[in-house]
Every structure is written in structure tokens, then in C-alpha cells.
Amino acid sequence: MTIGNTVGAERLSRRMARGCEFLGSEVAILGGAMSWVSERNLVAAISNAGGFGVIACGAMTPELLDAEIAGTKALTDKPFGVNLITMHPQLFDLIAVCAKHEVTHIVLAGGLPPTGSLDAIKGPGTGKPAKLICFAPALSLAKKLIRSGVDALVVEGMEAGGHIGPVSTSVLAQEILPEVAQDVPVFVAGGIGRGEAIAGYLDMGAAGVQLGTRFVCATESIAHANFKKAFIRASARDAIASVQIDPRLPVIPVRALKNAGGELFTAKQREVAQLLDTGSVEMAEAQLQIEHYWAGALRRAVIDGDVEHGSVMAGQSVGMVRKEEPVADIIAALMGEAVQALEKRAA
């Protein structure tokens, strides 16, 4: 896409250069990996529009991921990545599928990379190693990940949709960017819905940003019409975080639009806690049951359109999603806003 040749456009291109070079994209916008939403159609559309699409593997089997990567390649010849969940029981098989397709970037989410996973992605015998991106919800973890050899970080605040941490995007950016942005590219995520915010984080030293919620209502998104309508009608305060009811069960909070599905999740937590009480499941299995619950609840909302009982995961930027429009228009609008913001700062 063309950003322009004004002072603001030149400033934006210069600030995004590191992120664009790392991703191999025209603009330094990483697509947030949203289960059931970030599939071949949306991922390819983001990459074709100049951004960097990312497949949400979620609970996919290796066979399903294999088909999804092949399907994405049929829709774009631009680079794209794959997001893998660290707790997936077949993580190493999924990494092998990515290597088979020579996926250029792998995003690991859900905690510290398990032993051996970095070597599997980047080590000898992997052919052309993929670039590895990890999430850093704290400065200490960011530094640890850099020492371990990750290539880039995503700093995601609690304003984001889906699984979230306890700290806001603005605080994390202030804490982490000055310390590590010179070491590896850092992409800021969570609650970003306009180009002015993108320009601000780039000015702070970010290499780019990650956006998820903003792309849900893209024309190319396969999300059900009911799901998209829920986003368009929602305001920022409608996107709330789930509550942990048992301290023994380390449930990562999830941000979604308030509905009956939230109450169903509370009931699911009680059910799993009872299984722990009786010794019917180990902690790892309990955590996996929660993940499978979210995958199912999200599918009910995204694919089936049950936005009352399913999980309508959304970030607080949902209030800035006002209509269904093509990905290319969304990215163009964001870049236009960023250019104008940097133009004003140059005046």
C-alpha cells in the first residue's frame, strides 16, 4: 500500500522500517491471532493489504494446521505467521508442520516456551529457521525471553481481547520499551483502534503494533453476522474480563463482551475445581479443560452466531469498530491517521 510522501508519511515509514523489515511486510501491523477468526481468509487478506497475517492455531490438530497453512498459501504469496499455544499437547508436531511449510514466523503464546521448543523452531536441522515471537507481560520475562534467543516480543496489555494479563498497555509500553526495544523488535498490543495510538507507540520505540479486534468485522472475516453485529453495537465498557473463582485454578482472565456465556464459564470453573477436589484430574489437565471450553464457546459465537451463550472475545477497542469494511480500507485508515498525527508533531 502507498503511505504517501508527506513529512508525516516519511516519519511513519522511518518508524515502521524495523518492524517491516522483520516481518517482511509493507506496514508494521501484526494481525492478532483470534481462534476461529484468524483463519486463511482473514490472514491472507491482512498480508495482501500490506500487513502481516497470523493464523490462530489454537486447539487445531497438526492435520488441520497443515491444511490451514496450505489454504492460506493458496490465497497469498506474502509472508504470514502461525500462532501456537505453548500448552498444546502436540506442540512439537505443530512446529514440525510449520517447518514443513517453511512458515517464516512463529508466535508462541500462553506462557514461557517449554523446554526444547526454541531448538525445535530455530535449532540445527530445521532447514530455514523461523523467526520466533513471544509475548512478554512483564519486563523480567521480556529480558528472560531475549536471553533465551527469541527474535521479537509482543507487549500486550489488559485492554486486549481474549486471554489477558493484569497490566495496561500504556504502562507495559512505558516499562518495557525503554529497556529492551534496542535489543529486539517489540510490537505493542491491546486496546489499539486508531492510527494516532500506533504513531504514539512507534514514537516510544515500538517496531510496530498488533491488532486483533479491529479486524474482526473486516469483509474478509468469516465471523458470523451476529458476531460482527455484536462488535459494531458494543462500547468499550461492554468488553469485560472474566473472574477467577478458585485461587487453586490458575485461570488466565479472558476479555469478552458481557453475556450469559460469562456465567457459563463461572459454572465451568466450579466444575473443574470440583474435579481437582476429588483428584479426578491433574492441574495440567484442568487447565487444558478450560482451554477447550474457551475454544468451544468461541466457536459457538464466531461460527454458529450464538452471541448470547458463546464467547464474544473482544478488546476494549471494540467501541472503535463501527462498520464492516475491507481489510485494505481498515489498514489505509489506520495509516492515514498515523500520518496525520506525525504530521502535526512535526509542525
UniProtKB/TrEMBL annotation:
Keywords: Flavoprotein, FMN, Oxidoreductase. It comes from the Bacteria. It is an enzyme of class 1 (oxidoreductase). It comes from Sphingomonas xinjiangensis. The keyword Protease does not apply. CDD domains: NPD_like (cd04730). Pfam families: NMO. This is Enoyl-[acyl-carrier protein] reductase II. The keyword Coiled coil does not apply. Its EC number is 1.3.1.9. One of its GO terms (molecular function) is enoyl-[acyl-carrier-protein] reductase (NADH) activity.
